[in-house]
Specification:
The chain has helices at 3-23, 47-50, 57-69, 87-95, 137-153; strands at 30-35, 38-44, 77-83, 100-105, 130-133. By secondary structure, it is α/β, with parallel strands linked by helices. Helix 1 runs parallel beside helix 5.
Length: 155
Amino acid sequence: MDELAYDIYFMKEALKEAQKAYEKEEVPVGAVLVINNEIVTRAHNIKETTNDPTAHAEILAIRQAGMILGAWRLTESTLYVTKEPCIMCAGALVNARLKRLVYGCDDKKGGGVRSLYNIIDDPRLNHHVEITRGILEDQCIHILQKFFKKLRKHQ
């Protein structure tokens, strides 16, 4: 498979995690962390479930990978996430020394990678993460829109 085929495959896996978050009434964001085209960790948002403001899919996937691999430097890792990471998560990607980020859709209200801030490619920082955006963008947008439409109906 070529890189695009892998990106699509792993983004579909991240969307499965987003669906799990949706079913828990969490903002439906999912992530998978991959090394050498193998999934190391999977995660989805559980902020509401755990009452933990840091329980974003990206943070959980990075924490789990560090524990599994016995290292905090994830220099050969690619993180696939359905929505552009926020500033907290973007900072974590830099601190974990991730090689690459692949995400589905932009977050115009809270994006820390491109939409509002450019944390993971800021020239003042000591590490830069490669970025690929827009993989399965329509599906990633759809699950978020479905969630927030449902949420507004119940308010």
